[in-house]
Amino acid sequence: MQVIVPFATESPKTRLEGVLSATERREFARAMLEDVLEAVRATGHAPRVLATGPVEADVPIVIDDRPLSEAVNAQLDAHLGADGTASGVAVVMADLALATPVELAELFAESGDVVFVPGRGGGTNAFAARHPDFYVDYHGTSYLDHRTIAREIGADVSVVDSFRLSTDVDEPTDLVEVLCHGDGRARDFLVDAGFSLETTGGRVTISRSDE
Amino acid sequence: MQVIVPFATESPKTRLEGVLSATERREFARAMLEDVLEAVRATGHAPRVLATGPVEADVPIVIDDRPLSEAVNAQLDAHLGADGTASGVAVVMADLALATPVELAELFAESGDVVFVPGRGGGTNAFAARHPDFYVDYHGTSYLDHRTIAREIGADVSVVDSFRLSTDVDEPTDLVEVLCHGDGRARDFLVDAGFSLETTGGRVTISRSDE
């Protein structure tokens, strides 16, 4: 199975701008990418990065500066033709900081023309496709839209139910999950940057120590 | 296995007060409770409700008006003695509106002295305990605290990784998950109340029609 990890090289993770500087956001995004690539590799698959611009990583890079949906659809077109359908293509987002090989292996092994991993807020955090007509549209409630697309092309659908893979890291509250459940570079980055968990009024948030 | 579903009968779901009236919040909380009870029953287990006050439900009710941790610990004490340890006690929160029998059966069947289902934000959405010394403390980052408790009593720990069970419904953004992935009474309640999904600036939120 081809495993593709899309990665935005310019201004990544803008919704974290309240808690991380632009440089920090780039470093944090890179740390999450490396964690995801390592987890994919540990399943026995060789990931490729689909980047919007040049990026250093110890895996093959495909550069495509078009919007995410277009760039992913170009990859699906290239690899889900007559030859690619049997093994399939998986697309795994680069900000799944809690991903471990166990859940990714489940995604890659699950049967179905299209296998979805829903993310919080109606997103599609990962999928595996073996149907030549499947395509993506990440705008809006992409999980529901992708299910509609799968139905329209007559594809069998499976869903992998995983808290870890449902957790994409976009906003400050998501950092709680990384601090709580992570054990890779992304968590190390946050700890080194002074972040810790704090309980305020019974709710768990993050706090950052003065540097 | 004893399966206990704690339920607050007074002023439930206060963090939804921006989008639901007090009466609606009570009805919505009841709808979620019924969904959870039905999912537990479908696993072949007979749930009991641990309520802070009188509640109508077609299952045995235990009333205990103490704070959640105290009430749950009293149940653990009662059922994890010499006789109860073998089969164990499971505690499943009443606001897991996306729970289905598949994930709950996994929780009940998973081996381990204590089996945790983490929730978003450091919570413990469900657990199964077979160790006589296990106790709960739901304040703060309860998932990490519960893991510490398990370690201190020498209990083997397992974790069930489930997006559905990690989703407890506390805040307006959580309603997106119910509308997207639910298929029970809780979703019906929201649809009947006029809620639908809305995409604003690429992010998915809820909107409510005028009544």
Number of beta strands of chain A: 9
What radius of gyration of chain A results from the CA coordinates?
A: 17 Å
CATH superfamily name of chain A? Spore Coat Polysaccharide Biosynthesis Protein SpsA, Chain A
Largest interface: A-B, 28 and 28 residues
Q: Quote the average pLDDT of chain A.
A: 94
SS-based structural class of chain A?
Answer: alpha/beta
Per the principal axes of the C-alpha atoms, what is the gross shape of chain A? Answer: globular
Please identify the top-level CATH class of chain A: Alpha Beta
Into which percent range does the helicity of residues of chain A fall? 25-40%
How widely separated are the two ends of chain A?
Answer: 45 Å
The CATH topology name of chain A reads Spore Coat Polysaccharide Biosynthesis Protein SpsA, Chain A
Largest sheet of chain A: 7 strands, mixed
- Oligomeric status: homodimer
User: What is the string of helix and strand elements of chain A?
Assistant: EHEEHEHEEHEHHHEE
- Total helices of chain A: the number is 7
| Stretches with pLDDT under 50, minimum 5 residues of chain A | none
Portion in strands of chain A: 15-25%
Summary, kept brief:
The structure is a homodimer of 211-residue chains. Chain A has 211 residues and is α/β, with parallel strands linked by helices.
Polypeptide structure, described:
The structure is a homodimer of 211-residue chains. Chain A has 211 residues and is an alpha/beta fold. Chain A has one domain: Spore Coat Polysaccharide Biosynthesis Protein SpsA, Chain A (Alpha-Beta Complex). Helices cover 36% and strands 22% of the residues of chain A. Chain A has seven helices and nine strands; from the N terminus they run βαββαβαββαβαααββ. Chain A has helices at 22-42, 68-79, 101-109, 142-152, 163-166, 172-181, 185-192, and strands spanning 2-7, 47-51, 61-63, 89-92, 114-119, 123-129, 157-159, 195-200, 203-208. In chain A, strands 3-2-1-4-6-5-7 form a seven-stranded mixed β-sheet, with helices on both faces. The first copy, chain A, has a two-stranded antiparallel ribbon with strand order 8-9. In chain A, helix 1 (22-42) packs antiparallel against helix 7. Chain A is globular, with a radius of gyration of 17 Å. Chain A starts with a strand and ends with a strand. At the A-B interface, helix 5 and helix 6 of A face helix 5 and helix 6 of B.
